Amino acid sequence: MKQTLFLIAIAILLFSCEKEKITNSVPTPQPPYSYLSSDFAGINDNFYINVYTLFPDDSAFSLGKTGSEQKWDYSTIPLSSTVDTINFLDPSNSPDYYLFTNSNINLKKNDGSNLFLSKSSEKIDLVGVVLNVYGIDVKDTLDNPLTKYKFPMTLGSTLIDSGSITIDTQMVYFGFPVSATININYRINSIIDASGTVKTPTGTYACVRDKRIEYTDMNVNVLGMSVYSTTDTLYQYNYWTKAKKWNVIEITTDQKDKIKSIGYLLN
């Protein structure tokens, strides 16, 4: 009788272990972290970014690696006297709205940027700009809109796009009012190259990292002659989290990925 009970007990134990083994053998897969259009800023959102410029030989901060499950620590970024402000306004309240009726966001920065955007569930397009060139405000819609951001932002997603604008205006050249044409070409090359957690002076956030290069080529023609041209290239890494409506870290580098400045979201 004792031998029978002993065998029954062993059988029950083996069955329980096998059941537990089967139950726990397949973990629930976690979806990749994604930043969506609904996570992005909207009208009446305002952001303040503390921007710290590194000295040429400063190696206190690094970009880290690409891929998933990365950890970045930028919690020791010093406070700076440079604070960038970004305001998301209702474009219908702008005196220039008659030009940009297909815009649903007016983005203004304290550097003078005045952009008119179209936000949808899939992307955010730049549809129009107001610029100050040689002291003259010029404004117009893009001949072909530039996609600035594409959703969802998830590890491995890419964005390559271009846009252009041609503005006919009047300007004073050598003391005489003349007709002028301003041509601007935009290009963006972006990839979500990493995901993980980033630590800033304000907290720790799950995020995706957007590595992007933005090119802006401007040419000013007067009387059929080019009187001014410039090419600006911006190399940047932006860290986007669903906990905020704007990137919590933005790093500007040179062409070789040497960090030039780091900004972190104050609010």
Estimate the global geometry from the Cα principal axes.
globular
Number of helices: 1
Distance between the termini: 74 Å
Rg of Cα set: 26 Å
Briefly note the structural class of the backbone: mainly beta
Q: How much β-strand is present in the residues?
A: over 45%
Helix content: under 10%
Main β sheet profile: 13 strands, mixed
H-E order? HEEEEEEEEEEEEEEE
Unreliable segments of 5+ consecutive residues: 4-25
Summed up, the domain count is 1
Chain-averaged pLDDT: 88
Task: Provide a descriptive summary of the structure in words.
By secondary structure, this protein is mainly β. It has one domain (39-265). It is built from 1 helix and 15 strands. The strands form 2 sheets. Strands 2, 3, 4, 5, 6, 7, 8, 10, 11, 12, 13, 14 and 15 form a 13-stranded mixed β-sheet that branches. Strands 1-9 form a two-stranded antiparallel sheet. The longest helix has 23 residues, at 2-24.
Summary of the model, kept short:
9% of the residues lie in helices and 57% in strands. The protein has 267 residues and is mainly beta. The protein is globular.
